[in-house]
Design a protein that fits this description.
Number of helices: 32
Structural class: alpha/beta
Shape: flat
Length: 876
């Protein structure tokens, strides 16, 4: 480290502070220190000394390290705290780390102090960088949402007055800005005056911004952006000269940076859009681009309003030919027989035909061929009846280019109500249509897969429900969720996950009819809307099932993603409808509920909605909420089931039980899958491991139990954590035990290890090297194979109880068990059988070389006190 650090020492012994400083200097750390002893002095030093790191004693006369931590976490959470104390229990150490301390060092081991400080500072630097990146991404995400909201509003907006307030509000509410305002030029005094603002607008009180460059008030960001039609960004009010006259005002209101963006109208300066952010450097290139896009959208909307207003004015002034011919829109006048008698310059510019070429012809000279005879017949019927027609028409220019125009035709009548002429006014709206289509695409389609999004789904589903009610025909909603998609994202990245989503979208479109709707609901969820299946519910259900099974088969194929083959599957929930009064939201919820049922049924399958499912789902939601509190409320308890061999008790398997305050003892079959699915199994599993290690440590001092081992089940979710090895080693260190003397055995299932066998071997070997043993649980129920079994660093195989149950009565089971025992012996592995309930089963196992057993014949799972009592009775 080369920068001088500010080290704040909370220490009541000067000599100890001096020793700590000496250790830091010995490590080459350059620092300035301040020592305080009391709470008030500590609080003042936080604000005045601006420490980079805090070294705090744990016990002081009227203050302690835990209280200091609470103050730091509340007021200066970015400053790392390292505890330097004379003595600290394991429990106190855990509490300190949980309270926010980065590390702790005992005073008799001060050689650890400098590395601990350096680690703490590096960790805080990384955390600060992550916070800055997360804040930036959040700002961009919010602004993209703001742009989307503005674009959608523009599509619906029919009056200009609503535009500016909406934009300012979106910039603050969604874009993370502190304040936004739009100013326009007051030509009477040359001042750019705020017309709309949102947020902390007191900043604008008394603010003067001139449009003239020769005035000091005209040289700031907003004036330059307005006058020169370019974006002006001030990324630090303290450092940027352009903002100097307004620096004090900005700092008073807490602005760190600002951006000013011109809003031209019809290519000329019209307004300026200025936004302020509390942080410096908030306007990087991407953020500036996002807000620039918003300002361009505003200009586009203003120009659209102008075009619409111009068109309306032209309609009103068609009777004044000379004035009408000055417009930028094309004008063509025909006689009563539809022969062109006059065109304006805009006509020539838009069509390419000169007045000489056009006069004497009919407007049919511009026909593109895109609209049929029925279209023109309807046009003339309306024009003859109403003396007026307005609409879109595709025409062809002289050079052959086809364009879309907005055309208004008005019949000119004389005093006898007879038509004398027709006047057509038109404008080229090709780009307008393209822009509208782009906005529509953004609002109603998923940009990744180009499928309709949930907003468009609701519209189409509403129409489908109406059709179903009128025609008494059943339809169906298929809710599709990709299995294990999160694992793909986590292991190979979101770009590869996106590739799979695109491929799945193509598969779904190939599986349905052209008039069915395929929607990306969000994430890895898709919805298929099937309409007009059949009037008979059984036939409709069969048709929906056929489509569902076709989708399952299509997705359950290998996809090549960036050159690597990936096998996917999906779970599908189906809900039928027939205009029976079921609401749109309920219908989607039913399909979602059925999809969840498919997940719990093993995935890669489909299920139809059953009302009982919804009740089950609601009960599951209640259980999940309770489960999230169970660990912190100390509702879990470990039960111990004895394991024996020919010499007697050799250990036990720890089994988790949940003592629910209202429901009593909850079966693991109910809550373990839920914990696995929600991710709660990770902290729960760590707690189980810590409790088991604590029990083993207690047994080491017990002459009756010091030779016993404990087997702990490890879940798939827990084992697949990248830092699983670190977690286990951390638990051992926290408990303070030597794994070589501990007798800890981790039980893993076949499917868990097969998921990524290379990763499994690396983790198992790392833990085996420190003395932890591994047992292969439920052997024989998965994809058992010698090819992987001989590669895994196992110590023991556990024969699944489904085979043990029938060894005395079923020849197949007995043959399987004999094979497993023989294979284990050949591989040099121990073998234990679970679920041993009868003496016949035990005798068979021992005759065939399996002497280690677990089951109700020897003891059921019991709390630790009962287990200890049983041990004592056995040794009397």
């Amino acid at each position: 480290m080369t920068r001088e650090l500010h080290v704040l020492m909370l220490e009541d012994t000067p000599a100890d502070a001096e020793l700590a400083g000496r250790e830091l200097r010995k490590a080459g750390i350059v620092f300035t220190s301040m020592r305080v002893e009391t709470r008030d002095a500590f609080i003042r030093a936080l604000d005045e000394f601006h420490p980079d790191v805090i070294l705090s004693d744990y016990n002081l006369p009227n203050f302690n390290g835990m209280a200091a931590l609470e103050i730091v976490q509340f007021s200066h959470p970015e400053v790392p705290v390292v505890m330097v104390t004379g003595a600290l229990s394991d429990i106190e150490a855990v509490e300190l780390i949980h309270a926010g301390a980065k590390d702790y060092v005992l005073k008799d081991r001060l050689a650890r102090l400098a590395p601990a400080v350096q680690r703490a500072l590096l960790a805080e630097q990384g955390a600060r960088a992550r916070r800055m990146l997360e804040a930036r991404n959040e700002r961009l995400t919010k602004f993209y949402k703001a742009i989307s909201e503005v674009n959608q509003a523009i599509v619906r907006m029919d009056e200009e007055a609503s535009l500016f307030p909406l934009v300012c509000r979106m910039a603050v509410d969604f874009g993370g800005m502190k304040m936004a305002w739009i100013g326009q030029l007051n030509e009477a005094n040359g001042v750019i005056e705020p017309v709309v603002s949102y947020g902390e607008a007191e900043y604008l009180n008394g603010l003067v911004i001139s449009s003239k460059e020769d005035r000091p008030e005209g040289r700031g960001p907003s004036a330059i952006a307005f006058r020169e039609n370019r974006n002006v960004v001030v990324n630090d009010f303290k450092l940027d000269d352009i903002s100097a006259p307004w620096c004090a005002r900005a700092l008073h209101y807490g602005w760190g940076s600002s951006g000013s963006f011109p809003i031209p109208r019809s290519g000329k300066p019209f307004a300026v859009f200025t936004v302020y952010h509390s942080h410096a450097s908030a306007f990087d290139a991407e953020m500036t681009g996002v807000i620039d896009e918003m300002s361009r959208d505003i200009s586009f909307a203003l120009d659209s309003f102008d075009r619409e207003n111009e068109r309306k004015r032209a309609e009103q002034e068609l009777h004044i030919a000379a004035t009408a011919f000055d417009t930028q829109e094309g004008i063509v006048i025909t006689d009563r027989n539809n022969r062109i008698i006059r065109v304006n310059r805009a006509f020539t510019r838009l069509t390419g035909y000169s007045d000489t070429e056009a006069i004497g012809q009919t407007p049919a000279m511009l026909k593109s061929g895109r609209q049929d005879a029925a279209f023109y017949r309807s046009l003339w019927e309306t024009l003859i009846r109403d003396k007026y027609w307005q609409g879109e028409i595709w025409n062809r220019r002289k050079d052959g280019e086809i364009y879309l125009e907005w055309l208004t035709i008005t019949a000119v009548i004389d005093e006898n109500e007879e038509v004398t002429h027709y006047v057509g006014v038109f404008s080229d709206i090709t780009r307008h249509r393209e822009a509208d289509e782009k906005i529509y695409q953004l609002a109603f389609y998923d940009p990744l897969t180009m499928l309709p999004n949930r907003r468009l789904l609701r519209d189409r589903l509403q129409q489908a429900l109406g059709f179903s009610a009128r025609h008494k025909s059943h339809g169906a909603i298929l809710f599709i969720d990709l299995d294990n998609f999160k694992i793909l994202n986590d292991t190979r990245g979101h770009d590869v996950g996106d590739l799979l989503l695109v491929e799945v979208a193509k598969c779904l479109q190939n599986c349905v009819r052209s008039d069915d709707t395929v929607v990306r609901q969000g994430g890895d969820e898709f919805v298929v809307l099937l309409e007009d299946l059949n009037e008979d519910v059984q036939h409709a259900a069969a048709a929906a099932r056929d489509v569902g099974e076709k989708i399952l088969a299509a997705i359950n194929q290998p996809f090549v993603l960036q050159g690597v083959e990936y096998h996917s599957s999906s779970s599908i929930g189906i809900s039928l409808f027939c205009g029976d009064g079921v609401g749109l939201d309920d219908l989607l919820k039913y399909a979602d509920t059925a999809m969840y049922q498919a997940k719990t049924s093993g995935r890669n399958t489909l299920r139809f909605f059953d009302p009982a499912m919804q009740t089950e789902l609601e009960l599951r939601a209640v259980m999940e909420a309770d489960l999230r509190q169970a660990l912190s409320h100390q509702q879990f308890e470990l039960y111990y089931q004895v394991q024996v061999n020919e010499h007697g008790v050799m250990g036990a398997e720890v089994l988790l039980r949940w003592q629910h305050p209202r429901r009593g003892l909850v079966s693991p079959v109910e809550f373990i899958p839920l914990a696995e699915e929600t991710g709660l199994i990770v902290p729960i599993g760590e707690w189980v491991l810590q409790m088991a290690c604590t029990q083993l440590k207690a047994w080491q001092a017990d002459p009756l139990a010091h030779q016993l081992h404990l087997a702990v089940n490890v879940s798939a979710r827990q084992f697949r954590q990248p830092d699983f090895v670190t977690q286990v080693l951390g638990v051992l260190k926290k408990v303070g035990v030597d794994p070589l003397k501990l007798g800890l055995e981790l039980e893993l299932t076949e499917s868990l290890m097969l998921y990524d066998i290379t990763d499994s071997i690396e983790k198992m070997q790392a833990l085996r090297d420190v003395g932890i043993r591994f047992s292969l649980d439920d052997f024989g129920t998965g994809q058992s194979s010698l090819s992987y079994l001989k590669r895994l660093p196992l110590d023991q195989i556990k024969i699944d109880q489904s085979f043990v149950r029938g060894v005395a009565t079923d020849a197949h089971d007995s043959a399987i068990v004999q094979t497993i025992i023989g294979m284990a012996n050949n591989l040099g592995l121990k073998v234990i059988a679970e679920g041993v309930e009868t003496e016949k089963q035990r005798d068979f196992l021992e005759r065939n070389g399996c002497y280690a057993h677990q089951g109700y014949l020897f003891g059921k799972p019991v709390p630790i006190d009962e287990f200890q009592d049983s041990l004592s009775r056995l040794h009397r």
